[in-house]
Amino acid sequence: MDLNEKKLIVIGGGPAGLAAAVAAVRRGLDPSSILVLERDSEPGGILNQCIHAGFGLHRFGEELTGPEYSGRYIQMAREAGIPILCDAMALELTSDRRVTFVSPETGYVMVQAEAVVLAMGCRERTRGALGIPGTRPAGVYTAGCAQRYVNIEGYMPGHRVVILGSGDIGLIMARRMTLEGAKVLAVCEIMPYSGGLARNIVQCLDDFGIPLKLSHTVVKIHGRDRVEGVTIAAVDEANGRKPIPGTEEFIECDTLLLSVGLIPENELTRGAGIGISRATNGADVNQYRETSAPGIYACGNVLHVHDLVDFVSEEADIAGTAAAERILGQSGAVVKSLPVSTGFGVRYTVPERIDLTAEPEEVRIFFRVSDVYKKVQFFVETAEGEVLAKRAKSAAAPGEMESLTVPAEKLAGLLDKDCGGIRVYLRETGGQSK
What we know:
By secondary structure, this protein is α/β, with parallel strands linked by helices. It has eight helices and 29 strands. It has helices spanning about 15-25, 65-80, 145-155, 170-180, 200-205, 265-270, 310-325, 410, and strands at about 10, 35, 55, 65, 85, 90-95, 100-105, 105-110, 115-120, 120-125, 140, 160-165, 185-190, 210-215, 215-220, 230-235, 240-245, 250, 255-260, 260-265, 295-300, 335-340, 345-350, 355, 365-370, 375-380, 385-395, 400-405, 420-430. It has a five-stranded parallel β-sheet with strand order 5-2-1-9-21, covered by helices on one side. It is globular and about 65 Å long. The termini are far apart.
């Protein structure tokens, strides 16, 4: 492997990294000039342990398991001749696209790339970030860790289970543990709404009679050598979600699974001095997923946490295509840059800025709402009040990604206008659901 010939380095061999590499080849980049770095022993990323179905409905028009979905992209990458180096750990990235990594095959290596795609995914928030009182017994796991034990290693973490957090991984593990013979006693969620997809609430909890306790949290873990139970309590929405005295309930269990949020793996990003969004903990990017460092792109869960892997692949297509165009000298010069801000009801957007060329293309803006709403209208408008896109929806929740597409002609019309930026917000037409 001649590392001196590598022009595009993709860090991460999961669904985002593989899709970005495939997109770069489709755009015309020589596959031999690409190198995908994967720290695990096999490509595929987290989907290798997600053996449940529900992937690929948007991307492939059929329902696939996680390994089947990642297998499609592994096959596409191999058929395209894209080199994938496994057991390779990226150690450092600089703003001028110098990547340092180490692997048993290559040893310690520094490569100067013309473009880099960041696709490192995310990690789970652990008990240490929550500050739950109690001892430190065996039986406390993140939901993803338990998923790996059950689906890959063949171990059962426990038999009487409480789950804290109702994100999609927690909901899916409630069903998985039940199917393996465990008793899931409750899923507690500190917010007044679930953080997961509606379909997962129905298929993973309702179908199995598993109670979802909204506005509840775990206030104490009992047990010394092994978890013996947890105490849960209702929280006060009007008082910073603090536990309400007198609402405590003890649940006897031997396992506590934590599904309390995902954190993008952005240590390399920060080390390169790249701007980070406070809302997403991922890089600030334009519509091509280019970060504040020219030639460095980000996509997938390292950029912002997605609810569907199909959207990860779509975003990776954008990043991989843009990286290839930069290397091939096909990128258009930026004529005007417009910041994208959030208004009422919108927590964050991706992209955070739109860079207009002389011939703008349509831009799809992804965003999440900040609460649960019924009957809303989403708007994208200029700071001066010109509506660029809008869409009505019967309901919206933080657990589901939303998007609006701004037509190319609308963006082209801004080239010769004074525009202070673009804002995304929602307007209630039927009231807020608490």
